[in-house]
Structures are given as C-alpha cells and as structure tokens.
Design brief:
Number of strands: 14
Shape: globular
Radius of gyration: 18 Å
CATH architecture: 3-Layer(aba) Sandwich
Structural class: alpha/beta
Order of helices and strands: EHHEEEHEEEEHEEHEEEEH
Number of domains: 1
Strand order of the largest sheet: 1-11-9-7-4-5-6
Length: 216
C-alpha cells in the first residue's frame, strides 16, 4: 500500500515546500529541522497502524486504563542523508531500536552507477516492525538493497518504507523487487520524472549535501 500524504491537507505540505525551496535550502539547520519534523509526522501516521495493549496507570487520584505500544519498532536509515528523518521518527518512537546502513553511488565512466554498501549496524529484526527511512526514494535500488541487507538480522513481520519525496519510477521498482509482500510505502510527495542519472525532478537536490554540506 502506498500512503501519499501530499494528497491530504496538513502542515506536512508546508515542510515539503520548504525543503524544496532553493532559497530556504540555504539554511542547512532549517533544512535538517524540516526533515526532522517530517519524520515526526510520518511516525505519528505509522503509529496508527501498530498493535497496542492496555495497561493500568496509577495517577494521583486513581487508576486509569491506558494503551501503549505492544512492541517497539526498529528504525533504520541510510547514512548520511537519512539522519534528520531518522531522528524525527525516533523522537516519537523514543524506545525503538536503531539501524544504520552506509551506502553510496559508485559511478562509472559510461554514466551508470551501482549502489555500494560498506557498513551495517542493526539489532535483531526477527518478527519486529521495521521502519526504513530515506529522504529521497529515486531509483528505489538503495532501499531494496538496504532491506535485503538487513534481512541478515532477521525477517521483520512488517516494514514501513518512508521517504519525504519519491519518484513514481522508484516506487514501481520497489513494488517489483521487494522480496517480501509485508511492507507499506509512505511518501510526503511523489514526483513523476526521474533523470538518466536517477535524480528526481523537481525533487529538491542532494538531501545529504543540503543537510550536512558538500561532500569532499
């Protein structure tokens, strides 16, 4: 299932507009904060689909029945661009486990590239809810490769794939190549064009550079 939050009127659309804006992008702190706030909104929306259990809470005046998460998810992101989005989701799922994947595009002379993975840190995923986030879902190959890599830590019972901006082509690639049907896609916006170099148009540019400065 694809959840395109841009189809609803909410403050999320304000934050998506700001991370796209070339003038506002000049403030890297604001760019990171907007990605963090987008992550918080995704976390709230995803929380509605998770299982809960009832507990009794002692107040100053009595006992209240309350609902809390039945189990904590694991939040995974692709370094470095995904860190602000990951932080926003973690702000709401503050007891969740975290996973990090080091990945980059290895470019070739014929204007093609492959996704290279160099680092993975992840807790046990067996029968857990996995939230896999990356600000941009362009070709979709990074997300699929990251998911397949994380399977070495166990098979999640369900995976929520989160991106601030996705390409329609990338979403089609994910749907065709995910090895498990137990996943949901969450997008802040879906753009129709993907260039030959796998850049989303209109997109926003390089999220990692905008958040943390140009790569050396």
């Amino acid at each position: 299932m694809i959840h395109n939050l841009a189809l609803e009127n909410s403050i999320l659309n304000q934050f998506i507009t700001e991370i796209r804006d070339v003038e506002i992008q000049k403030d890297s702190m604001r760019f990171r904060k907007n990605l963090e706030r987008i992550g918080e909104i995704f976390a709230y929306e995803i929380s509605k689909s998770l299982p809960y259990r009832t507990v009794q809470t002692t107040t100053a005046l009595g006992i209240a029945d309350s609902k809390i998460l039945d189990s904590q998810p694991v939040i995974a992101t692709i370094l470095r661009a995904g860190l602000p989005l990951h932080l926003g989701i973690l702000n709401y799922f503050d007891k969740a486990g975290s996973a990090f994947i080091g990945a980059y595009r290895r470019h070739h002379k014929n204007n093609t590239f492959e996704i290279a993975l160099e680092y993975t840190s992840c807790p046990d995923l067996a029968n857990k809810t996995l939230i896999l986030c990356d600000p941009m879902l362009a070709s979709g190959s990074s997300i699929v490769l990251a998911y397949k890599t994380l399977l070495s830590k166990g098979i999640p019972k369900h995976t929520h794939i989160v991106s601030a901006i996705a390409s329609a082509e990338g979403l089609d690639y994910v749907k065709a190549n995910m090895p498990s049907p137990n996943y949901s896609l969450w997008c802040g916006a879906i753009d129709q064009e993907l260039t030959a170099q796998a850049y989303i148009v209109p997109g926003l540019g390089d999220a990692g550079d905008l958040a943390f400065g140009n790569k050396l």
